[in-house]
Amino acid sequence: MLSLPKRPIAVIALVSTALLLTLLYLISLHSNVAVKHYKDGSSENLKRLPLAVENTENLDGIVLTKNRWEQCLAPGNTPSYYLSIVIVTRMDDYAENQYLRFQNFLDSAFLLAEKTQTPTEMLIVEWNPPENRRRVVDVFRFRQSPYLSYRIITVPKAIHDALPNRGNSPLHEFEGKNVGIQFARGEFVVCTNQDDIWSHNFHNAVKSRVFRKDMIYLQHQDPHNIHENFPPSIVDLPPFADDETLYEACKLNEHDRDNFEVPEPTKVTTQNILHIADQAGDFTMAHRDTWKRVRGYRETGGVAWMDIEFICTAAWTFDIPVVYNEQGFTCHQHHSNVWEKTPERHTDNKHIDMGEIMRKEKVYLNTEGQWGLQHIDIWKLQLECMEFKGGLYL
Fold first, then answer.
1. pLDDT confidence tier of residue 224, bands split at 50, 70 and 90
2. Per its UniProt record, what InterPro entries does this chain match (predicted)?
């Protein structure tokens, strides 16, 4: 058989690779990333996204192409950030003064990224936006930091209506957090809520890089039905708190700076689960692969309970160690307990025996590929995605 010398083969391979890369580059120059729609009904194909959006209320009529939309959602094969912060919200003035608490939350994340100099992603899942209300991107100040990126994934009413719903709830916290878990780009993903701010302990832990894969991290959090004589983890911040006030508001038994140590894993039992998983919706953190191993929160269309059940499943079904930090990673901004007023929306857990989960007699788990909107045509039902760095353009 006639064979070519190795050197010409190598040259041919290099030339072919160079030509292919050049072709892909030329194609990228002429591909559209978005379509801009004008009021007169006309539209324009955009080769690149604008540096700034002039009118955030309608995003200048810009709609991403499917290819660019997929890029916006893509979590990547490897993490792009150390930390993804995931929350679920809608602009319905939850528990009143939602704007003030949410802005404090955003500013607290900015301070976390800046002070720890840690690559961080703020991933906001805007669920079922109310009609005739402004959207998240049009309401808040998103401050720019070289360490902080923002992504807003919007789940429209069409998707909300396609999912199970207990008590006609307008927002599904755990289904929304699962969306964030699916698309998060951080090595570690912390699911929290818009009423929380970060403690000095969390700054210290992040900077110390103490978190590990195949662990679930929880914290002590005082009950949220305390409305006077607040314990340290419940804060009542003044309106429009400045950075110093915000940063100093959550000091909880601090460690030596940059030398944080997490405790050893806690043995989770039916006797202590309700203690260590209390208020876990405000802080549950794990490596992004660990979240997906447990398949996120079980999706039932209800509120409450699923944060606790997730810990039961992780600890007992999957034997994942749980680290419980008594000193606290967040403080909760005080507000009225709205969710208690709608018991018809609560997850029905009367039939669940935690002992059966612990003894591995029962398993409560999402079906593989049937959680975090994996089973829904999210492009057809118009799930939205946008990413940006924040800041003001003058």
1. confident
2. Nucleotide-diphossugar_trans
